[in-house]
Amino acid sequence: MPPRHADAIIPPPEAIVVPTKRVACDGGGGALGHPLVYMDMGGDDFVECAYCDRRFVLDAHPKPENEYLSPAARPPEAH
Q1: What mean pLDDT value characterizes the chain?
Q2: Assign residue 40 a region: left if phi > 0, alpha if psi is -120 to 50, beta otherwise?
Q3: I need a surface site. Which of 18, 51, 61, 62 has the fewest CB within 10 A?
Q4: Burial letters for 54-79: b for 16+ Cβ neighbours within 10 Å, e otherwise?
Q5: Gene3D superfamilies this protein is in (predicted)?
């Protein structure tokens, strides 16, 4: 791959505003995406996907979290 020119414009990663600190990302490309990953912002107000560099930013008015809003998989009897 040829080196990039110093003035080349690189678009910023996609930023998605979310209402909770727990998010899931699959790359958004269907079959062209990446494995589904779950992330937690912890003490920060954003988290970046290690696969696709999407940045999930916490909304200015976040919703309170509970287990129902958890993106983690639940056993079938919990649905």
Answers
A1: 79
A2: beta
A3: 61
A4: bebbbeeeeeeeeeeeeeeeeeeeee
A5: q5lls5 like domains
Mean pLDDT computed over 33-55: 91
Q: How many domains does the chain have?
A: 1
Q: What is the pLDDT of residue 65?
A: 72
Adjacent-strand bridge partners of 56: 16, 47
Q: What is the CATH number of the domain that holds 38?
A: 2.60.260.40
Q: Is 34 exposed, middle or buried (0-12, 13-18, 19+ CB in 10 A)?
A: middle
Domain membership of residue 9 (yes or no) is no
- The predicted model scores a pTM of 0.68
Three-state SS across 22-43? EEEECCCCHHHCCCCEEEECCC
